[in-house]
Amino acid sequence: MTDQHNVVLLTFPDPSACRPAFEEAEHLPGLRQAAVLERSADGLLETKDGYVRGAGVATVGSGVVGGLIGLLGGPIGSLLGFAAGAALGNAAEAGRNATGGAGLIVLSPRVPDGAAMLVLDIHEASPAAADEFAAGHGATVERIGAEEFAEQVRAAEQRAEESPDDGPDRTGGTAVA
Fold it and tell me: The pTM is what?
């Protein structure tokens, strides 16, 4: 079986069961990111935890490369090169985090009141590992292909950009009070 990039959703009717699963999820083969969404009984949604494999690597790596290049300009060049490289790496990570946040917003309607959801961004050679993991924690499993999920996020972002706001009337007419 070929490697599949999926978003795997594990729903926990009891939110307290989700925390131990989140802590163990870091050890799943192929895991890239994980997040916990929890909805209170009165409908309030919270992002409880998040994990990104390799978080900070782009920032530090870009800073080191910038510092090495900056060595050509002496000690001050090295310092400025490190700062510039770190800033570029940090911007790249911030962009990735913004996309991840939009994905969690798209998933939020799937979290029932009084329940929790563990969201896994994972490359799977086989669904068996995540299925066994979910069964061991008493969670239900749903899979969405990463490409299909990315399309859902893009469509939601496009709808949000196109939706009318409470600002001025954009139809060329005059707003009536």
Answer: 0.62
Residue 30: its pLDDT value, please? 87
Q: Is residue 172 part of a domain?
A: no
Span 121-175, pLDDT tens digits = 888 888 888 899 999 999 989 998 888 888 887 887 787 777 665 544 444 444 4
Would you say residue 80 lies in a domain? yes
**Alpha-carbon distances of 104 from 9, 23, 27, 99, rounded to whole Å:** 11, 19, 22, 9
Domain that residue 42 falls in: 4-162
With 0-12 / 13-18 / 19 or more C-beta atoms within 10 angstroms meaning exposed / middle / buried, residue 174 is exposed
70-112 pLDDT per residue, tens: 545 665 655 555 566 566 655 555 555 444 556 677 777 888 8
> Is residue 113 a part of any domain in this protein?
yes
Q: Is 174 within the bounds of a domain?
A: no
Task: Name which of 122, 161, 167, 113 is nearest 142 in CA terms.
Answer: 122
Contact at 8 Å (CB) between 89 and 58? yes
